[in-house]
Design a protein that fits this description.
Length: about 150
């Protein structure tokens, strides 16, 4: 059986002072909590392809920056794995995309996206969001890998 594989992306403004988060209404353990934007990696899909696809599906915005393709804009930042699951975290920087997200009032799904100041994140964050978000901003060698068999 294949591990459940996911991508989660943090879209920051160019300065890294603002970030887009999605307010989840599914699955049950995430209802009412903010998470990075992402979803399941499809069968035979690479995480680098899944991240821009999921961002587009969740926001209706293609994450491109000038001549930079979506797959080039997203950079791996953290990798988590546990028993039967793995999550590939990505980061991207674009003030233009952050401003477009702020201006949106309708979303392709029933889960709205909000932009927050990194220094003033909401309290209702999903598991791992706070530290993976800050690791995505940290000046460390990426991606950071964490094997955590006790966390699901």
């Amino acid at each position: 059986m294949r591990d459940k594989s996911y991508v989660v992306g943090y879209m920051f403004n160019n300065e890294g002072t603002e970030v887009a988060l999605i307010l989840k209404n599914k699955p049950a353990d995430q209802v009412g909590l903010y998470n990075g934007i992402g979803g399941k990696i499809e069968n035979l899909e690479h995480s680098e392809d899944a991240m821009p696809r999921e961002f587009l599906e969740e926001t209706g915005i293609e994450a491109v920056n000038g001549n930079t393709k979506a797959t080039q804009l997203w950079k791996k930042s953290v990798y988590l794995q546990g028993e039967g699951w793995q999550v590939h975290y990505f980061r991207a920087f674009s003030t233009d995309i952050i401003e477009a997200l702020k201006a949106k009032t309708e979303w392709p799904t029933s889960e709205p996206v909000h932009v927050y100041a990194v220094k003033d994140l909401p309290e209702n964050l999903y598991t791992h969001v706070a530290w993976t978000l800050f690791m995505s901003l940290a000046p460390v060698q990426f991606p950071v890998r964490v094997d955590d068999p006790g966390v699901e």
